[in-house]
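yo

u said u wanted the structure for the complex thing, so here. seqs first:
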Amino acid sequence: MKGTIAVLPGDGIGPEIMASAVRVLDAINKKYHHTFETRDGVTGGVAYDKFGVHLPEETVEMCKKADAILFGAVGGPVSDQESPRWKDAEKNVILGLRKKFNLFANLRPLKVWPGTEIFSPLKPDIIAGMDVLIVRELIAGLYFGPMRRYEVDGEITAEETSRYTWKEIASVVRIAFVAAQKRRKRLTVVDKANVLETSRLWRDVARSLHTEFPGVEMDFMFVDNAAQQLVRSPASFDVIATDNMFGDILSDLGGAVVGSLGLVPSASINDKKFGLYEPAHGSAPDIAGKNIANPTAQILSLAMLLRHTYDLDKESGAIEGAVLSAWKAGKKTKDLAAKGEASLSTQEFTSCVIERLK
Ligand code: NAI
Ligand code: MG
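structre next:
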């Protein structure tokens, strides 16, 4: 198969872990006789230095010509968010790309493979078998509604509005139903319908769509309870569908539950096969340039890209299998190693994965 992938490494550890993913793509090209090509684009601080903006038009144009975007991470040190180079970098790039490509749904698989229970802070018997897919709405709701700050009788006041249309909810819930159909056929819609009108609309839409997916069992859960259940019995979930803010929070919680954000890939997709694939974590400036970052989330984001944009299940599964096999052989980066335990550099771990792909 032929294809063109836009590669946007970004800032911090982005370029280091992206180098790993590109090496894995080369190995896939060779092994399965594909000719996937990559085109590099600048975003974030690097783009700011060159063009004075975080998301240059030429990067966007380049992405438009590609089949998919493989994204690293953007953003500067947490202590330096106000300098022009970093101010709003993540927002400008990520929210910008989501809007420009109508990437309305975010898929985040949270999976604990047999043998990797030990990465989790939870007890092995609780975490065993966890395999959850969170489907989060990405371009509406509280994060995209009108926001303002104003004064009432001299009192500083701030507000934002969460707004959802039937159609916006339906597109996301449909993706969740389709995913559940291919998995263990269970969908949990997470909301706060005891308080919020948008949540009640989510329930109405989900009930209405359910008639098209009679083979999928559906239930509803309040978000506060869902947070608790993700910790108490994470293996009880299959697919979760939820709104933008609840999904943001629950998916980071889920990342911590599986052991490290460095393990969690994600896909932001539209109604075509186009998607932006990126690790769940940020640019980790605290460890940038040291060749110690865990490239797993970036490599698994490539696996999601191959599966979702190109329907290459076999290649995608081979990458996941190679990562798992490396871990089983005791190969791991510093974030996963116990105190005093030996660890591999980013590129050494990548080599272990590639050896197992061949
Ligand atoms: P972060 O996810 O970058 O880092 C949090 C902690 O996890 C750090 O201690 C970091 O060293 C560690 N970590 C993250 N990824 C790792 C990996 N692959 N291997 C080993 N350790 C890893 O989040 P933080 O520190 O809150 O934000 C740093 C910057 O990243 C900020 O500028 C923020 O705006 C940006 N950011 C960008 C995102 C994106 O590009 N999609 C998403 C989240 C944050
Ligand atoms: Mg987040």
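DSSP finds twelve helices and twelve strands in the chain. The domain at 104-263 is CATH 3.40.718.10 (Isopropylmalate Dehydrogenase).
cya
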